[in-house]
């Protein structure tokens, strides 16, 4: 069986599919105690700013399968500006239908990601 139908009063017949989605989900969390700064952390995917994380906040992204470059950087007002641009990035492998969870960490060479065990 490929799927089922659902009758919706607004949409009419809607086809439901049990196929694996053609995207994966990347979740990046900033825990309150991991990084002791009130500054925002910018999340860059493929060198494009996609979101800002505040303390205790998470963001999720639906991405196509493949390798995605994730870079993090300090953002905010005058006291939050880093003295240099973060060049280091993490390469994350996205699989279709999978949920990938990462936590922002302060590493020896700057901000980075650590995978959270399922």
Question: SSE layout and pairings?
Answer:
Elements: E1 3-8, E2 12-17, E3 24-29, E4 40-45, E5 48-53, E6 58-63, E7 66-75, E8 90-94, E9 99-107, E10 110-115
Parallel strand pairs: 3-9
Antiparallel strand pairs: 1-2, 3-6, 4-5, 4-7, 7-8, 9-10
The quaternary structure here is single chain
Any low-confidence stretches, pLDDT <50, length ≥5? none
CATH class: Mainly Beta
CATH architecture: Sandwich
The strand count comes to 10
Number of folding domains? 1
Assign a percent range to the helix content: under 10%
Structural class: mainly beta
Short description:
With 118 residues, the chain is an all-beta fold. The chain has strands spanning 3-8, 12-17, 24-29, 40-45, 48-53, 58-63, 66-75, 90-94, 99-107, 110-115. β4 and β5 (48-53) form a beta hairpin.
Describe this protein with a few key phrases.
118 residues, mainly beta, four-stranded antiparallel sheet, four-stranded mixed sheet, Immunoglobulin-like
Structure description:
This protein has 118 residues and is mainly beta. The chain has one domain (20-115): Sandwich (Immunoglobulin-like). Helices cover 0% and strands 56% of the residues. The protein contains no helices and 10 strands. It has strands at 3-8, 12-17, 24-29, 40-45, 48-53, 58-63, 66-75, 90-94, 99-107, 110-115. The strands form 3 sheets. The chain has a 4-stranded mixed sheet with strand order 6-3-9-10, with no helix packed on it. The chain has a 4-stranded antiparallel sheet with strand order 5-4-7-8, with no helix packed on it. The radius of gyration is 18 Å and the shape is elongated. The mean pLDDT is 82.
